[in-house]
Amino acid sequence: MTNAKGTEGWLNRQQGFFGEKTLGALAAAGGISCSKPELDLGFDLNLEAADGDTARLQIKTTRSRVTIRDQSLRYSLEVDAYERLRRKLTVPSFLILMEVRPRIEDWVTCADRGFTLHRRARYVSLQGLPASPNSATVTVSLPLANMVTPETLRRMAEGGPT
Amino acid sequence: MNSGLLESLEIDHVRDYLRQMGWRADKSNDDREIWVADDETRVLLPRRRLDDFVSLAAELVARVAANAHRTEDDVLIELSWPGYDKLTARTHADSASPAVPIQEAIGATDALRDLVVAAARASESRQANFRGGWSSTVGRYFDRVQMIPSMPGSFTLRALLPINAEPPEQLLLPALDTANIRSVTRTLLSGVRAARAAAEARSQGADTNVFDAAVSEGVSAELLDALVRLGGPEGETSAVELGVAWTYSAPEPRSEPIRIEPGLLPVLAEGIAVLRASIEEVSAVLTGSVTRLHREPNIGASEVTVQGYLDAGAGSSTRSMKFELDEVSYSRAIAAHRDGSTVRVACTVRFDSPRLVVVRVTSFELGVAR
User: Which residue range forms the structural domain that includes residue A135?
Assistant: First the structure.
């Protein structure tokens, strides 16, 4: 029963679900649509701009403290995800790393003046990077400057930033 | 969606399809094109076969299907075979259930095959009935006919009929002159329409000559026989509905489905006898399996039903035939039924209203057990 409520598996699933929905909200605020891909190629979400251009997103969420070095978040990405993200595709693809608070009760604050989602996210494009000799994980860098916002999501769908 | 079909989609075909369906190219770069429908729905067509081709093709098909209020499978099939019209044969047209007994399903598939062959032969030369084997032209055509899965929620046989002799990739899309193509499909439709009209006229008192007069439209004994068999086994017949959807690469005004009510099937069967009048009885060999044994306890006639391949002078087909046997042969039939052995039945058959019947059995031999 690894997915029973309150277990680590359940919490992981909830944080992934919350991460996708948060991005959906940001995308909506950016004037673009956000959906699950028609075929599962390992990506979590599609972004689509009003003019029909699209981007693929791979989303990772973590409750752990993430190391910062050289103004970048350092994250250990599974090799298969790295290989998927570094391939040349028709549409751009991005890795998004979302940090959430350790306790689920702290993810959202609701107040009279509005909701607050307590998480932050950075993005990076790995397309075109060389293959990795590693067998389990590859450490990737997500610049702190690459903050995920409604505007950056819109630009991703429109073919940039990379 | 079938990822194998998605992977093999030709980008040029998809582009032609979108254009034919009224989509317009909005913008493009080296990697992709964006197409827009009248309602501002947009699809992304990849221009290169990179690793996300299948995924993007799936999204395109899903969106085009939703836009056209069609199923994704339907659109994918159309995109995959631009050089083929789609023939649908709906048996049990009034049945609420999409399920049919397996023997009936096999029989219906065989009947559809024979309907296509009869149309292909009639498109070559109009004849009341066809003796001997097929021409190489008919054979080549038949080799390219494809069966595709039934539609969800119904037992509908679907076949893809090539629209001309050239492979699809050689079609001059989209500037195809539709006047000189799909002769088999046209013959099939005109033959089935003429068959129904002849049966209706006959049931209202017209002379049997109505069937002879319909030969010029593509009607033959084989076409009528196939239609009768599509209606199901004797005593359990149902309406048959045939329709053709033209491929997008050679569009024409929509062809209305042709429905044949079960009450017309015996009249069509009479037409078979009329068109085969010159060959009332022929020798035949039926090779197949004993599917039923019929005998009252200790008395009465001993009858068997054999489902198999009938090779007769006037043609060959897969059939289920019921006939009487003597005591010795009936014992063999029991053994064959028990062991699943193949039987070989030499017999004389007559094309008699309403069906092909076995007049006498010359020999009944056991074959190999399965």
Answer: 8-157
Q: Is position A3 within any domain? A: no
* CB contacts, 8 Å: A56 with chain B: 52
| Cα separation, B87 vs B307, whole angstroms | 26
Instruction: Flag if B1 and A39 touch (Cβ within 8 Å).
Output: yes
Is A2 within a domain?
no
Question: What letter represents residue B277's amino acid?
Answer: A
Q: How far is A128 from chain B (nearest CA, A)?
A: 13
Please report, as a single letter, which amino acid is at residue B11.
I
* ipTM over cut 0.85: no
Q: pLDDT digit string (tens) for B223-272?
A: 999 999 998 877 778 899 999 988 888 888 888 999 999 999 999 999 99
* Chain B CA closest to residue A52: B42
Number of domains in chain A: 1
Structural domain contains residue A33 = yes
Residues written for chain B: 370
Contact B241, B90 (CB under 8 A): yes
CATH number of the CATH domain containing A88: 3.40.1350.10
Task: Collect all residues of chain B within an 8 Å Cβ-Cβ radius of residue A39.
Answer: 1, 3, 6, 54-55, 58-59
Residue A44 lies in a domain: yes
The residue of A39, A48, A162 whose CB has the most chain B CBs within 10 angstroms, and thus the best one to mutate to test that interface, is: A39
3-state SS of B285-350 is: EEEEEEEEEECCCCCCCEEEEEEEEEEECCEEEEEEEEEEECHHHHHHHHHHHHHCEEEEEEEEEE
- State pLDDT tens for residues B332-345: 999 999 998 999 99
- Give the up-direction half-sphere exposure of residue A8: CA atoms within 13 A in the CB hemisphere: 3
